[in-house]
Write a structure and sequence with these properties.
single chain, alpha+beta, 3 helices
Length: 204
């Protein structure tokens, strides 16, 4: 379980998502503080060739939680984060050690129709969650392609780019850094999203 410091840092990061952005100073939220959800794309962009197998560029450190800047939701299911683990976890996975509840990269969702409670910081958490492990991925050189499958959400497919320089700056800035480090398109079942952006959080 994350420490209280970690929870505080995550709260600060999420709060940063609601701050004004851009040179025009336009608000990213309404006056009520509501974060507008990302609308599904009217038409799905032509998908890139699906990746097969598992591969990553050795020596790259992409560890952390990638938090969507705006709500990404299909039905009652909301994307909480994309988690990328350490390189050792990639090596184990690619060697065939795929048992266990976690993979080297995962997409984590919450069912907002399930029982809700508050954590010690007053944040809403949900009883029902889904962790989508990879069925294939290709990661490295700033590119990230991942597919996975969930019994409820169906196939989930992500194709995007990591700004490695921005990631380094976010790490140096520490908790509360409010800089986009990941941009992706995402297909959740039959629902496409485009131009998603993510902030970085280091966890424990």
């Amino acid at each position: 379980m994350r420490s209280l410091w970690t929870a505080v840092a995550l709260a600060a990061l999420l709060a940063g998502c609601n701050q004004p952005s851009g040179s025009s100073g336009e608000k990213a939220t309404s006056d009520s503080g509501f974060v507008p959800p990302v609308e599904p794309a009217a038409e799905a962009p032509a998908p890139a060739s699906a990746v097969t197998g598992f591969s990553h560029v050795k020596g790259e450190d992409l560890f952390g939680y990638y938090i969507p800047s705006s709500e990404v939701k299909v039905g009652t299911w909301k994307l909480d984060n994309i988690a990328i683990l350490e390189e050792a976890d990639f090596v184990k996975w690619e060697a065939g050690d795929t048992a266990g509840p976690a993979g080297p990269i995962m997409l984590e969702f919450s069912d907002t129709s399930s029982a809700a409670s508050e954590n010690e910081l007053g944040q809403t958490v949900y009883a029902k969650t889904a962790r989508i492990l990879p069925t294939s991925y290709k990661i490295g050189g700033g590119n990230i392609q991942v597919t996975g499958t969930d019994v409820t959400l169906g196939q989930v497919r992500l194709d995007g780019t990591i700004d490695v320089a921005a990631l380094k700056r976010a790490r140096a800035a520490g908790p509360g850094a409010n800089e986009t480090v990941l941009r992706t398109g995402l297909m959740i079942g039959s629902t496409p999203f485009k131009n998603l952006s993510f902030l970085w959080f280091g966890g424990d």
